[in-house]
Amino acid sequence: MIIGRLVGEVAGLGTDHLLVDVNGVGYVCMAGTRLLSRTHAGEKITVHVETRVTENSITLFGFGTDEERAWFVRLQDVHGVAGKAAMAILDAITPAELMDAIALGDAKVLERAKGVGKKLAERIVHDLSGKPPPLGRFGKFEAASAAGMASAPVAAATGARGEAISALVNLGYTQSDAARAVAGVAKDSGDDVGVLVKAALKELAR
Fold first, then answer.
1. What is the pLDDT of residue 141?
2. Residues whose CB falls within 8 Å of the CB of residue 191, separated by 6 or more in sequence, listed in order
3. What crossing angle do the helices spanning 83-92 and 66-75 adopt, rounded to 10°?
């Protein structure tokens, strides 16, 4: 049985995990400080879960959004990045910042993560450069509903950037060039896909 999401009540919190009570059954999920810091015992919560099964154990990794879960999986495509390192990266930077760092080749951003040195940061940027952003478990990211978060699109900026990059790729640009251009104009162009595409096209025409 692979668990993909838990909806229940926070029954307990630890330094690196939380206990979620779902209809009387308690599930222990490993979690980063980003999720734990905004979570309180007794409140309702939705946790997006990545299940890892080995010969000796079943481990649940919990995230506040499906986008974080998707990046957790993608990061481990890189040699040398295991679950602990991937969790540390997502604790230090948001998916939007991670996406921009990869597009712009800015490995120093990843060095903000605990235990991630220069060589590993550069390898992550190199290996993931030019690849499309990861998709949600069912092809798109769900609404954020972790503790204390309003029901709004998950990381709207990153979602818009992903759509803008896809539009540019469909126009014939490479994934790398499209991602770099969108990352470069995103700060001043907001979250509107059309605005992002127009600004990125100007950037690419230079």
1. 61
2. 156, 157, 159, 160
3. 130
Please say whether the dihedral angle defined by the alpha carbons of residues 32, 59, 111 and 66, taken in this order, is positive or negative: negative
Distance CA 55, CA 99 (A): 33
Q: What is the pTM of this model?
A: 0.74
Q: What share of the chain is helix, strand, coil (3-state, %, to 5)?
A: 45, 20, 35
pLDDT digits (tens, 9 = 90+) for 56-102: 899 999 999 999 999 999 999 999 999 999 999 999 999 988 988 99
Phi, psi of 58 (to 5 degrees): -125, 120
Beta-bridged to residue 28, according to DSSP, are 19
Neighbours of 168 (CB within 10 A): 22
